[in-house]
């Protein structure tokens, strides 16, 4: 990664560029292999309601395993976006998430899954078809498949994006605004967005309780969203203290390592079974 590249002796821009290009090719190749040979997986991270500790949803987070090396999204999503592979990855995660929902329902568990949707997917005219295909292939109800869309993508004024967002809503998929607070849109934009849920970005939570500015921003966003009738998920809660602060602020639900890490499907099953038995 970049850390390794910058840690060594001085790299002049030409050499750095070549290294980055090689790394990109390596990741691209790994993604192709993973798509062909079952190397992709979704890890599921629980999101818990503050009010009663119940499972609000799980966020599905993609992992790419290529010949024993696991690539994290921060490495492969940017490459996938650049090469257009993200469309196939996105279709795969929608379908896999939908199948997860129906497998859970078959076990009498109503679990909502939240799937991240990329810009490339939302700018593709066939996005709606992909949504219907995921429903048809899985028999999952759309209300259990939440689409996470970043704030700046919601604000994209292109016709096709706005049409895709409306079509997803009309098909019954709940929408949430991911990474809220880090885009460049203004708070006033919240009044017009068709999402019922906002996910407060980890950036404002990481340095709590020590940073009073983060505290002020987090509090303002939570209160505004609640006043607008939205629910609020706090992302990236890592400590008991952060949990207490965010629940005190009124956050509806919490996601973060403090409660649970993203887990492969079998481990999530165990996690769920353990909760039910206690
Ligand atoms: P995101 O949608 O904001 O997902 C939350 C990220 O925060 C995940 O990183 C999760 O592992 C991490 N996280 C959760 N709780 C904590 C915590 O307490 N502390 C810390 N430090 N991190 C926490 P991950 O899995 O590495 O994913 C990174 C990003 O990659 C996601 O951010 C999302 O934007 C993107 N991504 C992941 N899966 C997909 C996918 O299937 N499709 C698309 N388009 N993007 C994806
Ligand atoms: Mg997300
Ligand atoms: Mg997020
Ligand atoms: Mg994030």
TrEMBL record:
<feature type="domain" description="EAL">
    <location>
        <begin position="24"/>
        <end position="276"/>
    </location>
</feature>
<protein>
    <submittedName>
        <fullName>Diguanylate cyclase (GGDEF)-like protein</fullName>
    </submittedName>
</protein>
């Amino acid at each position: 990664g970049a850390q390794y590249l910058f840690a060594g002796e001085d790299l002049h821009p030409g050499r750095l560029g070549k290294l980055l290009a090689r790394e990109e090719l390596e990741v691209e190749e790994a993604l192709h292999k993973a798509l062909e040979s079952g190397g992709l997986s979704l890890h599921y991270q629980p999101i818990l309601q503050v009010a009663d500790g119940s499972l609000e949803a799980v966020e599905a987070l993609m992992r790419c395993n290529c010949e024993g090396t696991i690539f994290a999204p921060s490495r492969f999503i940017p490459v996938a976006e650049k090469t257009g592979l993200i469309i196939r990855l996105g279709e795969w995660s929608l379908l896999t998430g939908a199948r997860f929902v129906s497998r859970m329902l078959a076990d009498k568990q109503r679990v909502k899954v939240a799937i991240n949707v990329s810009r490339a997917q939302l700018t593709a005219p066939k996005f709606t078809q992909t949504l219907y295909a995921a429903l048809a292939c899985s028999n999952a109800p759309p209300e259990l498949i939440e689409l996470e869309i970043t704030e700046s993508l919601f604000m994209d004024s292109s016709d096709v994006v706005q049409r895709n967002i409306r079509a997803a809503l009309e098909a019954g998929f709940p929408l949430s605004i991911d990474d809220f607070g880090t885009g460049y849109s203004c708070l006033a934009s919240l009044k017009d967005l068709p999402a019922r849920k906002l996910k407060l970005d980890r950036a404002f939570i990481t340095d709590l309780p020590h940073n009073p500015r983060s505290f002020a921003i987090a509090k303002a966003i939570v209160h505004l969203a609640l006043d607008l009738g939205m629910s609020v998920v706090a992302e990236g809660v890592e400590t008991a203290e952060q949990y207490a602060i965010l629940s005190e602020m009124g956050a509806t639900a919490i996601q973060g390592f403090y409660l649970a890490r993203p887990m492969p499907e079998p481990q999530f099953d165990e996690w769920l079974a353990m909760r039910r038995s206690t």
